[in-house]
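Researcher: Good morning. I'm working through a list of sequences from a screen, and I'd like to move beyond sequence-only analysis. For each chain I'm collecting a predicted structure so we can compare shapes side by side. This is the next one on the list. No need for commentary yet; just the structure.
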Amino acid sequence: MRVLITGGAGFIGSHVADALVTRGHTVRLLDLLLPAAHDKLPDYLGDHELLRGDVRDPDLLGIALSDVDSVCHQSAMVGLGIDAQDAPEYVSHNDFATAVLLAAMDRRGIDRLVLASSMVVYGEGAYTCGTHGDVRPGPRAADDLAAGRFEPRCPACGAPLDPATVREDAALDPRNTYAATKVAQEHLAAAWARSPGRSVTALRYHNVYGPRMPRDTPYAGVASIFRSALARGDPPRVYEDGGQRRDFVHVRDVAAANMLALEQPAPPSFAAYNIASGTPHTVGEMAAELAAAVGGPAPVTTGEYRLGDVRHIVASPQGAASDLGFRAEVSFADGMAEFATAPLR
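Model: Good morning. Structure tokens for this chain:
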């Protein structure tokens, strides 16, 4: 199989490329190499074919898609989006670019797409109330966060909620600019896939970490931010009280999920899957694990917060296990021990 990987020079895209080549597939990488994400050409790309350019360029896409069987769409502008001024750039890089890509695939007759989506499409995760059962809390109020009241409450009675596991059939509820663009990407891809013979597999990544993660850039995730602090000899600064629950999934497992999605029989039209380890941990636990691995200072919880953040989001990976044969193989302890000293970008 010959696969075009957009964002192929990046953290996840490059690992997907390596995994596919290991399985005997041929890859072509397309990447804009934005200065905000890359200060130079990455040295881990090896002999992979790389086209430098913009997914929003239809002429370039005509070249990139030649002799391609499938597309693995990884490129995106990531992060929450700080304010309304960021929205045009997010929409352009994420949604407009996806629309241009889908149109180019239509012209080339390419009917198979694996789309990098995200857990952020859900907003808050799943919750239950002892009185009202399954509920969906509203956005957390700034006054509550400032007062250190971080846990969402039942919208009906105000009682504390118990976090539960979110499945792919949960309602989508984006709560920041980036999340809204990821939902739009899924909707654009699903609309494209309604034509006969087309297929989209959307992989909703949870908190991905591992070697080649960007550091000290707008694309750095929380694990990378903690790594940078420890490298300076500083304690990781953990927002809120550190009790936010997430599912940390290693980038090699994410790459394997992409490979499985491309190699499995194409789903009819559109299918979405959680790509997660199935074993949640708190952000505080992750910071402590990294600090212990390098003998660095213990994390400090700051009480700081970001309005666009959610409190808990833990996924069920059962759909990906049953349909794709995906099961995460890298344990939290092993993955964090490796990541604590792994090369970053």
